Structures
1.
Amino acid sequence: MILKEHKKHTAITRPAMGNFARNEWAIVGGPCTVIKVVADTIIEALSPKYQCAYADTSHDDIQLQGRLTVGAALEFTDQINFSQLNYKEHLTLFTQRQLFAQMDMVLVNGNHQQAKAQVVIIDANKKASLQKRAAQLTNIQMILLADNADEIFDFVKEVAPNWSELPTFRINSDKEQIIRFFQNKLQQAKPVLNGLVLAGGKSERMGVDKGTMNWHGKEQRYYMADMLKGFSQEVFISCRDEQQQNKIAGAYSTLTDTFTGLGPYGAILSAFRHNPDTAWLVIACDMPLIDDTVLKHLIDNRSTQHLATAYYSDATGFPEPLITIWEPKAYPALLQFLSQGYSCPRKVLINSDIHLLRVPDAAVLSNVNTPEEMDRAKRIIHNQFAKTDEP
């Protein structure tokens, strides 16, 4: 008898993380002082556009400081120019990823820490030290030659059979090329954009499913999905199970909530659970005045450095979460807010580092949730069509 393999845990899609973040490089093979200078050069050049971080290890015998000496497990100090957080215990990989979750790039001192990609320094004085770490050189992406080196070490060639194709620069004279390498890598790593139409609400105030209302010649959920196709790699309609089974046309891809009972918040989390490495352009089906111009303006001004790109709503005085680009770094933030008992996407935007835009026409952000609001939207759309038909 062959026993079936027993699986204890549900298989879910994991983000493409390394030890710290999605985009991380260990700089290895040179003196620690040189590694820090290289990291400083890169971070200074890229930090205006990207969230950058540096990770290192100190082997100095430094005694516990502050409240840690009397037994505190954690000490937080809100400095004038920065915040400082000291832990008594070593961090696990999982805690590291939480702390670095908002970073676009992490550079690591590879003499002490590992990362999923490596930049190798060829330094004659550090050859033996680098050779001891040869097993860690699993994904070399760039080689830097110190002033005392002209040839790549044989053991590096062995672990990187494609060594002759790798970008190779002089560490002191090719700084612009080194910076450009990382610029290109981060541009290539820009998350693709998927579209999500929120159409799973019960429309209790309206009395009719808002996703099925016909404002522009077809059901609104299909109209918005078709509109998003021009801006997104994939488009999904967020819906309830019973909608998917009986009411959504087969030509449209659907996502049902795997975080249930949370309204739009659950729909956004469910989208990230489906694909945590893409950004999601989320739009609610109860905004019938949204058009291509508004979407194009949002996407043209997208900032991947921030957690999200959203419009400021004049009606509420806050960001509008239901026509927003949520970057992959929003996923852990949404989960953290949920763990503290909050399920309002607007609250996440208000309390996070986001890129906030002014909408070209404030009226387009109008929600239609009641028959009265429906009548007002109909008049606006009718007037728009009338102006279009004028000779």
Note: The two ends are 80 Å apart (CA to CA).
2.
Amino acid sequence: MGRTDLVHYHFLQSPWSYLGFDRLMEIATRHGVTVRHIPLLPSDIFPATGGAPLNKRHPSRQSYRLLELERWSREFNLPLVLHPRHFPVDDRLAASCVIAARDMEVAVDGLVRTLLAAVWVEELDLADPDVLSMLIGKAGLNATEVLAKAQDRSTEKTLAEDTEAAIALGVFGAPTYVLDGERFWGQDRLDTLDKALSAR
């Protein structure tokens, strides 16, 4: 049997990506699988796949989203601010930092979790380079090196390529977990992902 490929497509400003992150990593660790973290931008994914940004959705959808967020945060005993001060913001640089760290071949698990929690727990601004520098350091990485690489044209190209590849796979929202080519959309599909890994 070949090496298992588990990809975590996420939006850094997705509360669902935040809510699912710890469970994803626990499942992956238990199965001895490495997770490849690929950040995407809803502003790129939604127009290409028929989605709508939050402020364009019907009020009934928006209110139900809040109800579900409260339920899931209670279910997993995870803190979550329903209306964070800095949401939404332009998180292209933050996503580029994850790509930069990944391409520098350093572990990015901690960075992804730190950035997700920064929005939904700490209410920090992912568009602020100074905030990003602090968060990168908090994750144990070299902020100067990561930010420099994040602003390189090659990283911008990688983000575009990752987006094209995700759309080609059928990714339309976050989080989406792709196990050896099979998609699992949403943190509420993690139990199904766990079973799929157990069957391998």
Note: The chain is about 55% helix and 10% strand.
